[in-house]
Design a protein that fits this description.
heterodimer; A: alpha+beta; Aldehyde Oxidoreductase, domain 4; B: alpha+beta; Enolase-like, domain 1
């Protein structure tokens, strides 16, 4: 077996690719159960109103309708990952247009939709606020009168509709400004972006005669589904089994509750299986978006380019419910310094309630809102000082062994190499010197750096050796389409010395899988991957223990050999295959080999002596990852259109377990970043979402993407990561907008501070 | 809701005439989406799919062109032998939506919806096209310019359906160009310009221009065309014609752009359309 090649580092096709391409992959909405009903959710028609009464009699009288449930039926069971402030169906009040108020189950979709129209709910409208300025005004209505009594998982000050005030202070910015030779200051505005996953939210719930409910749904964590459905319906978690079929994208939008509580409530009310799948329009109006942000930032540097101070005020529009807002606001605060050594910082970040769709987790998680400010200010500083923007960055970037703000140690930091790789690949020095001609289409190139983290919280893995010596891996980690099942199998196979097709991967199932917090925070490869390596090592130790009995030698004398064998060190011919060991374990002695591991992120913590930190809602936050991205653009001065010509993207990833999948992640993030930079924007007309469809809300299509995206993988193995790997899911989206803004400034001299950079905004800016 | 699949135009007309809440189903690209959004709830659908007489593209002896109402965008986009200004209709079809929409959507369905953001209306006006209609009282032809009456409103009367679009012979030496500006590929136009031009010795001998997405119906201004006639389509000629056209525009503010921005686009897009059309003549 000398020809064994470790699966780690191989760009193999993803395991589910064939099923997806041929249409065989099963998503939640593809599923059907005997006697199944179809559920439809009734949305609030008001942005802010008190519910004064329900009349569901006409709906119930309709032939084919099985049940209607409202907030009265499910009860006032509050949920929320940071602040328990919402119920699965509105209780007492509605706080945004589109909020679920009731749900109906009927024999088919047409009947259910007809019944939904017959549900008569009376409201008393209340004054509403649609932006953060209005929501923080002295006379603004309080969205959550009971906020003080809500359960919260972190400690922070709050101020009226500002649900949290997060502060990070180090050094003394006021004293530092005097030492600055260049200071730039500006206000930046970013928009709500829709996750626009291909698969709208869907859940199928079925109840058995013991009252146990099984839920198949599109999600980012079966364990999270189990937890919030239990909380929202007041059920013990043992009465819920949560499973995941294929997921058609999530990007943060399916981490918290979607339609699972409503489906479960309807199954409980009817005793029959109920499937709820949102239309695209309802998905837009009902679920969540990226936070719109308003950022004021000031940055100063010494004459030699040393960055000395940065002051930041961040206000995020959280919408009607907290959801992940305190977390997003905290991460925005943590990342807004940028990946630079700046000794004096003063940062404040506030998520604010408004009467709009809740904002939540979205790839980048607070990073994109502050990157447009931070990374364009770096270019403005470079411009003032007459320095090249990459030279200025290289002078200031954080280096391995240094600390982030508030004292988190950086074990590895490959940003300098990312910058050098991008600089060389894109022909930066020549292109920056080129002067645009006056033909009406001007070219420019710009760059941005991205800091992010990969890790957080807890994961586990179980590796069982089957009777024939092959293995089954169970992590409970949901593959959202990014390829984690494939990567985790590659890690497991490599750790066992097996081939990929000798390792099966179990479907996430709360009844049988080990806990995994979620497919989020760029963490599955890093955290679940670590658990997989450790569980595989545990399995190998057990295999050695059995083999020692079989071979009558000491365990310490045994070694794992490629191809699924255990042998005696120094004696090549003395070895036994996994099949024989596993047969012995199953039928003779020792028992089946079941390797397990569970872990919590255990990296460096904050240092309270180093700076002032208040209201930050996370503990240990994961391994640091970095990236540098450059975009070359052409700006049409007659129409204002920005055409991205090529993107270069270098990522500090530790080690690529599957280089093809990594490149796919990077390319996908870049395209989503192009949408964020150039065209995607959810627009509200007072409380009504004006563009809740793919006809009016536009994501980039294949023709809008540059023909070439040059991805570069910087591999400096992380000491704890599985085979040295770190995550890559989020950074690729973050740098695109600031890189484009910098490129437009290079091409035209005009600085854009509002996203998306639509042709109209560009043209108006060009015309001053 | 009832579903009918007649095989003749007369049968379809009588079904439509008998039920004012019935709707024709052509490609369904727009109608089905509107039904899904509860924006229209027809009592019956009259599918035109099985009416052979509504398909096909045919040239007449005089050089005119007849495009059956059920001709898909893809068929128009791929049609061979559309010469001179007629090629504008293929160029326009290629700019509609994306492949899935072009495979399903039809020219009759598109113009029957009367959406000024759609691509065909401006092109048909620039080409001096006519729309053939059939109703309980027989057949009639309406010039494209008069067919579009208001936002989502056409000259179609109850019980009538569109049977074809006809184009007059291409003007001698004429070429067309469709300049579409959209947020992303496949979106409705923020502004579009359809131009048909014939150049002679560097001067514009014939010109027709229509704008899409600039008002409730395609915008045409004969004064603008008169201003361009006889010129070399220099910047100042385009600017002057654009100013005349802008006076005829009444664009809305929506997610694709403000009305003001649409007005800002008229001049550059008009210049590009005219020059692209003129260049095709030069390149021949």
């Amino acid at each position: 077996m000398n020809d064994y090649v470790s699966p780690v580092g191989q760009g193999i096709p993803r395991l589910e690719t064939r099923d997806k391409i041929t249409g065989r992959a099963v998503y939640a909405d593809d599923m059907s159960r005997p006697d199944m009903l179809v559920g439809v959710i009734v949305p609030s028609p008001h942005a802010h109103a008190r519910i004064t009464g329900y009349d569901v009699s006409a709906a119930l009288a309709l032939d084919g309708v099985a049940a209607v449930v409202t907030g009265v039926d499910i009860g006032d069971h509050k949920i929320g990952p940071f602040v328990k402030d919402e119920t699965a169906l509105a209780v007492g009040k509605v706080r945004y247009m589109g909020e679920p108020v009731a749900a109906v189950a009927a024999v088919d979709l047409e009947t259910a939709r007809q019944a939904a129209r017959l549900i008569d709910i009376s409201y008393e409208e209340l004054p509403a606020v649609f932006d953060t300025d209005a929501a923080t005004a002295a006379d603004a209505p309080a969205l959550h009168e009971g906020f003080a009594d809500y359960i919260k998982v972190f400690e922070a000050d709050s101020d009226r509709n500002a649900m949290a005030i997060i502060e990070i202070v180090e050094g003394d910015v006021d004293a530092a400004w005097e030492r600055c030779a260049a200071i730039v200051e500006g206000s930046y505005e970013t928009q709500a972006q829709c996750h626009t996953y291909m698969e709208p939210c869907s859940a199928l719930a079925e109840i058995d005669s013991n009252g146990k409910i099984t839920i198949w749904s599109s999600n980012q964590s079966v364990f999270h589904v189990q937890s919030f459905v239990a909380d929202s319906l007041g059920l013990p978690m043992s009465k819920l089994r949560c499973v995941t079929p294929q997921v058609g994208g999530a990007f943060g939008g399916k981490m918290e509750q979607t339609v699972q509580p409503a489906a479960a409530a309807l199954a409980r009310a009817t005793g029959r299986p109920v499937k709820v799948t949102l239309s695209r329009e309802q998905d837009f109006e009902m679920i969540r978006s990226r936070h719109p942000g308003k950022v004021w930032m000031k940055t100063g540097a010494a004459a030699d380019g040393t960055l000395l101070a940065r002051e930041v005020r961040i206000v995020l529009d959280a919408g009607a419910y907290a959801d992940d807002s305190p977390g997003v606001a905290g991460i925005a605060a943590l990342f807004c310094r940028g990946p630079y050594r700046i000794e004096n910082v003063s940062i404040e970040s506030r998520p604010v309630y408004t009467n709009k769709l809740r904002s939540g987790a979205f790839r980048g998680f607070g990073g994109p809102q502050v990157a447009i400010a931070g990374e364009t200010q770096i270019d403005e500083i470079a411009d003032r000082l007459g320095m090249d923007p990459i030279d200025l960055r290289l002078k200031n970037v954080v280096l391995p062994g240094e600390e982030w703000m508030i004292g988190v140690a950086l074990n590895k930091a490959g940003l300098s190499e990312c910058l050098e790789r991008v600089r060389a690949a894109c022909g930066w020095d020549a292109k920056r010197k080129a002067v645009s001609n006056g033909s009406g289409r001007k070219r420019g190139i710009g760059l941005a750096c991205i800091p992010h983290i990969s890790g957080v919280l807890t994961s586990g893995a179980i590796v069982r050796i089957l009777e024939d010596g092959t293995a089954v891996l169970n992590t409970g980690a949901v593959d959202n389409g990014q390829g984690s099942d494939t990567v985790l199998v590659q890690i497991c196979a490599a750790a066992l010395g097996l081939e990929v097709d000798q390792v099966s991967v179990a479907t996430p199932d709360t009844d049988g899988s080990p806990y995994n917090w979620g497919t989020t925070a760029s963490r599955v490869t890093y955290m679940a991957g670590r658990a997989v390596v450790a569980a595989a090592e545990d399995a190998v130790a057990q295999l050695k223990q059995r083999a020692a009995v079989m071979m009558e030698c000491a365990e310490e004398d045994l070694e794992l050999r490629d191809g699924g064998r255990i042998g005696i060190k120094g004696v090549p011919e003395a070895e036994i295959g996994f099949r024989d060991i596993s047969g012995f374990s199953h039928w003779v002695a020792g028992g089946p080999v079941i390797g397990t591991n569970s872990l919590a992120y255990d990296g460096p913590d904050f240092d309270p002596k180093r700076g002032y930190l208040k209201g930050f809602p996370f503990g240990k936050i994961g391994a640091w990852i970095f990236a540098a991205q450059a975009v070359e653009v052409e700006v049409d001065e007659a129409t204002g259109r920005i055409v991205p010509l090529k993107v270069w993207s270098a990522h500090d990833i530790g080690k690529a377990i599957n280089p093809t999948a990594v490149e796919g992640q990077i390319q996908g993030g870049i395209v989503q970043g192009l949408g964020y930079a150039l065209c995607e924007e959810m627009v509200w007309d007072s409380g009504r979402l004006a563009n809740p469809s793919l006809m009016d809300y536009k994501i980039p299509g294949i023709m809008d993407v540059p023909p070439e995206i040059d991805t570069m993988l910087v591999e400096d193995p992380d000491e704890h990561g599985p085979f040295g790997a770190k995550g890559v899911g989020e950074p690729p989206i973050v740098g695109i907008a600031p890189a484009i803004s910098n490129a437009v400034a290079h091409a035209t001299g005009t600085r854009l501070r509002r996203l998306p950079m639509t042709p109209e905004r560009v043209l108006r800016a060009l015309r001053g | 809701m009832e579903f009918h699949g007649p095989s003749t135009v007369d049968e379809a007309v009588s079904l439509l005439a008998a039920d004012e809440d019935a709707r024709c189903l052509a490609g369904g690209a727009t109608l089905v989406a509107m039904m899904n959004a509860d924006l229209v709830m027809p009592s019956a659908l009259v599918s035109l799919r099985h009416i052979a007489a509504l398909g096909g593209i045919a040239a007449d002896a005089g050089g005119g062109l007849r495009i059956g109402a059920m001709t898909t965008h893809r068929e128009v986009a791929d049609a061979a032998g559309l010469d001179g200004a007629h090629a504008l209709i293929s160029e326009t079809a290629r700019a509609i939506g994306h492949p899935a929409i072009r495979n399903m959507g039809t020219i009759g369905g598109s113009i029957g919806h009367g959406d000024p953001q759609a691509d065909y209306p401006a092109a048909l006006v620039a080409l001096d096209a006519s729309v053939e209609l059939r109703g309980p009282d027989g057949a009639r032809a309406v010039p494209a310019q008069d067919f579009f009456v208001d936002y989502l409103e056409t000259a179609l009367q109850p019980g009538e359906l569109i049977t074809a679009v006809t184009l007059p012979p291409s003007p001698a030496g004429g070429f067309g160009a469709y300049e579409k500006f959209a947020r992303v590929e496949g979106d409705y136009a923020t502004v579009s310009v359809a131009a048909a031009v014939a150049m002679e010795a560097g001067r514009c001998r014939y010109v027709r221009v229509a704008l899409g997405s600039c008002g409730p119906i395609p915008v045409r201004a004969e004064d603008a065309e008169a201003r361009l006639a006889g010129t070399a389509l220099a910047d100042e000629d385009v600017a002057a014609a654009a100013a005349v056209l802008r006076d005829a525009c009444d664009p809305v503010d929506d997610v694709r752009g403000s009305g003001e921005y649409r007005m800002m686009l008229v001049e550059p897009l008009l210049g590009r359309a005219l020059r692209a059309a003129a260049a095709k003549g030069g390149a021949r």
